[in-house]
Amino acid sequence: MDVLHTQLAALQHQLDFVATKPIDWKFYVQAFSWGVTLFESYLLLRQYPLYSKTEPPTVLAGHFSPDAFEKSQKYGKDKAKFSLFAGLFKQCLDSAMIQFGFYNWAWDVARQVLASFGYGTEYEITQSIAFSCVLFFASSIPTLPLSIYQTFVLEEKHGFNKTTPTLFVTDLLKGWGIGFVIGTPFLGAFLYVFKWAGDRFVPWLMAFLLCFQLSMVVVYPTVIQPLFNKLSPLEDGDLRTRIEALATKLKFPLKHLYEIDGSKRSSHSNAYFFGLPWSKHIVIFDTLIKESKAEEVEAVLAHELGHWYYLHPTKLLCISQVHIFTILALFPAFLHAPQLLRSFDFSKEVSAHPPTIVAFLLFQMILTPLESLVSIGLNAISRHFEWQADRFACELQEKLGSAEMHDMGDRLGRALITLHVKNLSTVWVDWLYSAYHHSHPTLTERLKALDAFSAKRASAEKKTT
Hints:
It is a multi-pass membrane protein. Keywords: Endoplasmic reticulum, Hydrolase, Membrane, Metal-binding, Metalloprotease, Protease, Transmembrane, Transmembrane helix, Zinc. The chain crosses the membrane at residues 125-154, 175-195, 201-223. This protein is mainly alpha-helical. The protein is 72% helix and 5% strand. The chain is built from 21 helices and 4 strands. It has a 4-stranded mixed sheet with strand order 1-2-4-3, with helices on both faces. Helix 5 crosses helix 6, helix 17 (368-394) crosses helix 19 and helix 17 (368-394) packs parallel to helix 21 (443-464). The protein starts with a helix and ends with a helix.
């Protein structure tokens, strides 16, 4: 532990300039946040002309009817327009908040609220929680019309919305309530670790965040999600028999198999698993069951089990820990930099002893351009994992010695096509737009890879016969 703290102290020495040099951090954040937004807008403009194509890629020509492809293109075009406007609107809002001292105002409002209850500035954690609530509501309300438009205009226009106004408001209030119930103690504990551990907070905060992440793996699907959707045991039948047999052959620790009423809000489809290493639960959207054949849903689940087989969730968790460690290791230099707060219009009194929550928030803003680069790398890793999971499904025949799974790759391909057709997913995708935004390969890339896997296996079988 001492070696770790020595290395972290050496890093902080290299970052002494943060507290000593007169850097205009506000200008830096404004410039780079606008740079990221304009780059994302540029990517949308690269992607937008592809929505004018009148025919799908050759590999999909036999799977998309002219009408389905036209609907897909119109949906993609409308989503792109909305994304462009929403991105610029949110950036203008964020930029105005930064420029006109909104964060200083929010901190002062939190102080005044606490003072009215007889609490002084020595209650920093309590004031930080109040500050976060002010920020949340003040930044959420102006963007609420975007959510309303997306749900009741954009999704409604293209036949996906199943959310009623009452359900929308109920979900919104539930989300706010859950955020308060979970976020308040989390933030309090998060800030307490800083106060308790002092400058040696990094390993302790890492441990706290890891415990929180692992607990949410269980809490979210078992406690939070049922507040929004109903999870029912999957009915007995061909699909259940197939999935349970596949799980048994793979020694997947399946405990529960659920169907979720995703159609309550949207027509989009999905399937996933969650749980602890020794107890897993599979959840399948009712829309997926309705729109696909049992053998195709089985293929989708085979892909998902490929993620489990190759420990992809565990690997992503480890990668996230490295990412979090890097952020926390850099943070102390910004925590002890009064001029950082002065750059964002905080008073001399507040800046002299920077509140942890304020310094961390500003630090996150400064990291914006770096986080954009990190997201590209994470997307690349995620796409690699998707390739592996697809290949896993194709190789089940060999892995399990099960002849009835010889066509699993073909079934997965058909299921992916069905999902894309029903979801009106974009099939013409600009490579740079995809690299930045997509955690999954495009449909055409996945189908070509599945064909390559099948061809390679057929070639191998010929050599052995």
